[in-house]
Fold these 2 entries.
Entry 1:
Amino acid sequence: MPTKTLEDLFLDGVKDIYYAERKIIAALKKMARGAEAEDLKAAFDKHLQETEGQVERLVQVFEILGKPARGKTCPAIDGIIEEGQEILEEFKGSPALDAGLLAAAQAVEHYEIARYGTLKSWALQLGRNDAAQLLDQTLAEELNTDQSLTRLAEAKVNREGKQKVA
Amino acid sequence: MPTKTLEDLFLDGVKDIYYAERKIIAALKKMARGAEAEDLKAAFDKHLQETEGQVERLVQVFEILGKPARGKTCPAIDGIIEEGQEILEEFKGSPALDAGLLAAAQAVEHYEIARYGTLKSWALQLGRNDAAQLLDQTLAEELNTDQSLTRLAEAKVNREGKQKVA
């Protein structure tokens, strides 16, 4: 008799992203301090505020499930953030630093897009429509942030990274 | 005088995804063996073949850059794959196993989508249009695979995961 259910998988996933979001808050603070361009700093600061709201939504999801808000170590986000940290160290003082930080932030966004998309789908399957709605709000924010970062990258950061070394 | 350029960042990124793709090949083999549903096994096998072609394209990108095809340890993919491995172990025999494996595969896809999107953009900025074209071909495949997995998840795997435990 299997003991693990989709409900268990869903709860594990919520714990995973709860851990991830709090790691992301710490990483975004470092990235905002490290970024050279003011508009990239501003983009990181804006997403930092948004992320704090996303953590609040996860606390509400835990409440819906009747479970304590508790994270579960997420090696994926640890690895993704580690790569951003490497960029900060290895490209400090380089004209390509901002392009690297922006790419690191987009890797974070895509991890979140994958996870929130999955969690929303599982919440709907489990009939947890209230949780699905909260997860969908965050998913929409993540998709929007990723698109804003792409626009910033293509319009400015990558171009400057190249021009300064040309 | 900064020594690191966008060209360095681009080469580091190609090495990172080259390492990642080869790790993904090994992980997909395990996931195809572990999956319960035949259509999920088939989806993993199909993507395995596609991934082998993507590695070949990266070898071509290294050739364009005049650099040896060499990977660079990518803690992000190591972490993402580790989470898939945890699902395989913790949900073995569970009706939710396939839903978990599918979610793990989508996290991998999104990592690749983020990286190939970035690398294509950098290749264009650097005037490496031949490399950009190769990277864009892989990006299109990854986006397509992610959409196929979403359809499979919503149509079948999550629903079965739920029904078997109901």
Note: Helices of chain A lie at 6-34, 38-65, 75-90, 97-125, 129-163.
Entry 2:
Amino acid sequence: MKRLYFDYSASAPPSPGLGAFLASLESFKNPSSLHQEGQKARAFLESTRKEMKDLLGAKPRDKLIFTSGGTEANNLVFASLWHQECVGKKVIISTVEHASILSLIPVIESHGLIPVFLPVTANGVIDLDYYQSLLDDAVALVSVMLVNNETGFIFPIKEMARMAQEKNIPFHTDATQAMGKLVFDFSDLCVDYVSWSAHKFGGLIGVGGLLVRETCDVIPLLWGGPQEDAKRAGTENMMGIASAGYALKNVCNNVDSELERQQKLREFFLEQLAKKLPHCLVIQAEQNVPSIVSLAFPGVDGKLMATNLDLEGVAVSFGSACSSGALNKSPVLSVLGFSDDIAQGTIRISFGSETTQAAMSTLLEKITLVYQRITGEVS
Amino acid sequence: MKRLYFDYSASAPPSPGLGAFLASLESFKNPSSLHQEGQKARAFLESTRKEMKDLLGAKPRDKLIFTSGGTEANNLVFASLWHQECVGKKVIISTVEHASILSLIPVIESHGLIPVFLPVTANGVIDLDYYQSLLDDAVALVSVMLVNNETGFIFPIKEMARMAQEKNIPFHTDATQAMGKLVFDFSDLCVDYVSWSAHKFGGLIGVGGLLVRETCDVIPLLWGGPQEDAKRAGTENMMGIASAGYALKNVCNNVDSELERQQKLREFFLEQLAKKLPHCLVIQAEQNVPSIVSLAFPGVDGKLMATNLDLEGVAVSFGSACSSGALNKSPVLSVLGFSDDIAQGTIRISFGSETTQAAMSTLLEKITLVYQRITGEVS
């Protein structure tokens, strides 16, 4: 049997036709070189940047800095705080950010800044009154993700960014799990910085970027040549950037109808699941991307579920990929207030444009089978 | 006429067969994922790492951390100094390091360290007595490149690293321009850290690495997931790493005979050049990689030479790619003590495995033609 891949949020399959597209490109030379080979690479780089900015809703003077991925983009925003004027200031982040932000907490503190956490409830709510009460002159940055990587919760970033904007506080959102999973418009979103990663929407692994509002800036994390407007040194990852541009175009091409299709797949799956396994808990917010389904099987070992599904030919994840190796319970679910019973019994199903209803049906069958095998229950 | 590419040091052409090799690979999933797709990626990643370590002469317990390139690898070594214990300590670097090290000087100072410069003479000599006199308990790091990017000078890294080793001082070498241009052996070289970049020896742009001696360590520059033994967060650039492994194997395969061939090409070219353009100055050290030829035409505008050669179908560089856009004279030649007359009149020719003697002959013709056109001289 063909394997079924339900881990798009860890890494999406390549955008349709990506291999042929990349093979059709000449091998790129160094875009900093002045000769024709270099200038050809430069022209391709800049036209890709422009296309991507347009697709993302950025204005001509907004910046798009290419990085080695979402992690570097997130680190770059925070590294811009490592200077004297920020000492003693606060950084507001949610409790469910990606590891590339939560891991920075000791670094934030070592630079004399104070991290302040925004709690998120089990159904994905951030208390906006509390949030607003935190916004004052002592806040150097707010950073809240647009879509949570484990649950698919969509946070009210536009509203939150507007509240920060009123107080002239820079606002960053990690949109790594958002691109291709919802309609994205930088100008509409009112944020100042947006991180993204290409392999989450069908590009190659190893490339991402940071959108920066015209009026904002960053301090480099990587120092060296004057690439990326002197904000990110190092020869630009030409093939990676080409793949990002190609994949983003594909994703944006029919995002409305695709999201509608994904919503139907989700509803179909969850309806059937509720009938087959009524004990199963769906972790979701009122605003949730359709393509991430976080399921908890109380009292069952989620890692064992995922491993058994893998043996049955179905790839899902336990927690997110960045943490799945080492942990026995989902740190995100724990922080959302779920008991260990639930945080240990969770799996994440994430799908995308190549997922069919037939695949969802098979997934359902396999989950039921594996659940019954582990628990000894027969439906 | 087919264009002739003499800018391998900016970016080498893809390793023979690289496109087909990459196309033959399945699209990689996230190597941190626990399912079969993830574990396949993991296995490929680790076998590539092992192969590359072997080819580079690293021992099993030495580390190879993959990065987004040479710039990140260099920055990573220095970022490991940004802590309290290093305040007030010295960092010894040569005056001709790459921009990704020289640009760090204000950052080094902002972290309370003191940069100390090792001068290099016009014929590539570092005064080792002076160097030795600098080595004391107050030195936190020595960082000297193995091969200079603009001139091809080979520095006596083994000897210098041994002297540092005797005083327990960590030694880093930026070998970005060395891989494939000389025989490289990490174990023999006595250094603790080595940076490299794949696109300089036929891999893709956007991937590089840092070799770290078993007994040494780094503090991460990118924080997040536990990738790369928790030393470099971010999903590993699988295609980039695959390309690096492939290209390194190709390069190491017949490095001795290829270097001999390159040495003959260099000698042929320089002999003919001396006859045709006796005013031309060859910038070289006693130990020089054959494949980088730095030429100065006193009184002539090197940028104009390069531009005219480009129009004639020959790609060479003025200075190195990372700085060639903005400058009117080579910063490396200036620092080596050459007059403006010479530093403004320089071009860099760099070649490699696909360069034939016929190409060298055409290059010679074109240089002569362009030189005569610019100066009005007729030979």
Note: Chain B touches chain A through 70 residues (CB under 8 Å).
